[in-house]
Design a protein that fits this description.
The protein is mostly helical and 71 residues long. The chain has helices at 2-17, 21-33, 39-51, 55-68. It is globular and about 30 Å long. The termini are far apart.
């Protein structure tokens, strides 16, 4: 349900603002896996992965977003 995806993104954003990167990433990864993520979800997830030192994961996340939204 689209409202559920929006609520999950909002929850991830709240966790991010509280510096709870693990929980924020978990919510965003769920959206990505379920195919309900939008561009901002991918960008925030890549940002979190970079902050966690997961540079390869961040690069792959951005590459996936680029495939979905090539412009």
């Amino acid at each position: 349900h689209p409202a559920s995806a929006a609520a999950r993104f909002d929850l991830a954003r709240c966790f991010f603002e509280l510096n709870d990167l693990e929980r924020a990433a978990s919510e965003l990864q769920y959206l990505v896996l379920m195919g309900e993520a939008h561009q901002e979800s991918f960008l925030l997830l890549a940002d979190i992965q970079t902050r966690q030192g997961l540079f390869l994961s961040a690069a792959l996340t951005l590459k996936r977003a680029e495939r979905l939204w090539p412009e």
